[in-house]
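Internal ticket #5521
Category: modeling
Description: The requester needs a full-assembly model to guide mutagenesis choices. All entity lines are attached below as received. Residue total reported by intake: 343.
Assigned to: D.W.
Attached entities:
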Amino acid sequence: MAISATESIMIIAVCTACTFLERALPFIIFRGREVPDIVRYLGRVLPMAIMATLVIYCIKGISFASMGGWVPMVIASAATVVLHLWKGNTMLSIFGGTICYMVLIQMVFV
Amino acid sequence: MPKTLRYAIKHSFPIFISFVPVALAYGVLMESAGYNFVWTGACSFFVLAGSLQYLMVSFFAGGVSLATVAVMALMVNSRHIFYGLSFIEKFRSFGLWKYFLIFSLTDENYSLHCSHNFPDDINEKWAYVVTATLPWLYWVVLSIAGALIGTLIPFDTTGIDFALTALFIVILIEQMKGADNRLPALLAFISSITCLFFFGPSNFILPSLLITVALLTILRARIEPEKPEKEGN
């Protein structure tokens, strides 16, 4: 440990507080009053938009410098989509996609 | 309760799989920085934010002021500001459990809460609470395991973290299937890919979500011609 235990605990406390504060912000802003219509609308449509953003967030590390940097991600993502549209079984889609990705990056695009 | 637990285990299982490599590696990283399993467990228990916890390891190396720590922590997790917007009224109705559900509103739990599909005989509040608790437990236990035995894992887990990407893809497909209008997903894709191009992988998400919210607001009349009264997704 490069810093003291007290300093480490302070860092953990600050990070805990900041993270909680961010997650609590919408609840703090609309505390004790009616949620405005526009915010309710955003609450309805944001989940789909945020999931789409999180998908991009997950694949943000792809690189087009080499085949191995993007092909496994594209194939495995496509496999997940196809499996899900075909069978509609969440577990099957997730494990199928993941195994596909693991095989591709561990054995094919080493 | 057993029924609720069974539902929550099934619903959160993909999260468990995706946590295996990330949490184990986190424990190993903390060990190598001189922080044993007690520290690792405490960070996972209290902070409960994967990318920030990785960043904290660099804070532990010293030379970073608490003000900088606070700013960095707020920036890394800024996307979480948007998550509560869909659950303001729902969580309010859960009494004091609201605070736990807010505390545990990670990317993973947000995605699980957006895709709940529990049978009618399960109490809604407990479905949310138990579903939110399990990933927290997985995260704490797996990161402690990483600190204790992380270097002894016998098989190559490289790529297993794709489970989280796959989960997000599946949830997105389910949402698009059930939606009257798929424009929100399209707008978010355009905005995030554009921002990824301009701001780079570590800074794109906040501008992207701000632009998406702006577009959703501007295009409201097109996305939701009549106002339905239903809450959530």
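Resolution: model delivered.
Comment from assignee: The mean pLDDT of chain A is 94.
Ticket closed.
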